[in-house]
Recover the amino acids of this structure.
């Protein structure tokens, strides 16, 4: 089912999106050398509870995972890219960390992800990781620009894929963006590459989570023993950027932008 939100529901989506963005920025500021991934998970749980919101992850049990996820945020480090299950690992300077968060508040969900390098290392020391993060962010910007009312899903996929391909990355099509609204994962699927002018026609009130992600030298994934964490098959680094957007009469509105200063 493809869900179209009413104006009152869109107002709720804006609130939820801002909450997701604020939590991610707070966690980014706390993600330093020595920070444990389990601490990030506990802090996320506390911030969600303080906001009177609900986690979209803790009880999430889709067919591709192994039972309920059981945590409040996805923490993917270095060669992990999607569904990174928090575990007992202390970050070190230079780690490439992706934080992916989905929360529901007032009956409407929002989903976003950020990738960044931990610590104060000179970015030129890891130009490959910086370039990879930049490519996913530019692809996300291109996808959002293509998300106009009356456009097709394929226009978004083509815009994202064109940036990633031009940057030299191969694209995995098993996982991509998705519809979102009263639940976290809905139709339609938004692939990270595709043909323009094809697929569902975008309508005002549609919410989409767009999420370009790449791996440095492969498009093949392997699954950890935890049944959830997806890693690059070659052990190369990865990056992932995501926003929830709303299709409006005036174009795409980004819902997952920070509302407040970093705590």
């Amino acid at each position: 089912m493809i869900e179209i939100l009413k104006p009152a529901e869109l107002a709720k989506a804006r609130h939820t999106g801002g909450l997701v963005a604020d939590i991610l920025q707070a966690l980014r500021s706390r993600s330093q050398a020595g920070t444990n991934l389990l601490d990030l998970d506990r802090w996320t749980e506390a911030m969600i509870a303080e906001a009177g919101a609900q986690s979209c992850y803790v009880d999430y049990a889709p067919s591709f995972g192994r039972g309920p996820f059981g945590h409040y945020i996805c923490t993917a480090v270095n060669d992990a890219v999607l569904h990174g299950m928090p575990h007992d690992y202390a970050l070190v300077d230079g780690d490439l960390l992706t934080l992916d968060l989905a929360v529901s508040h007032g009956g409407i969900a929002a989903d976003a992800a950020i990738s960044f390098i931990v610590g104060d290392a000179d970015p030129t020391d890891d130009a490959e990781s910086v370039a990879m993060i930049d490519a996913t962010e530019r692809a996300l910007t291109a996808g959002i620009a293509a998300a106009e009312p009356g456009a097709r899903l394929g226009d978004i996929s083509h815009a994202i894929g064109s940036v990633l391909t031009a940057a030299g990355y191969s694209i995995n099509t098993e996982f991509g963006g998705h519809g979102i609204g009263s639940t976290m994962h809905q139709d339609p699927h938004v692939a990270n590459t595709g043909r323009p002018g094809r697929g569902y026609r975008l309508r005002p009130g549609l919410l989409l989570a767009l999420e370009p992600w790449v791996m440095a030298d492969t498009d093949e994934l392997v699954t950890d023993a935890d049944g959830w964490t997806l890693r690059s098959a070659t052990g190369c680094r990865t990056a992932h950027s995501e926003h929830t957007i709303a299709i409006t009469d005036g174009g795409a509105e980004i819902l997952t932008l920070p509302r407040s200063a970093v705590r």
Remarks:
- The chain has one domain: 7-119+129-254.
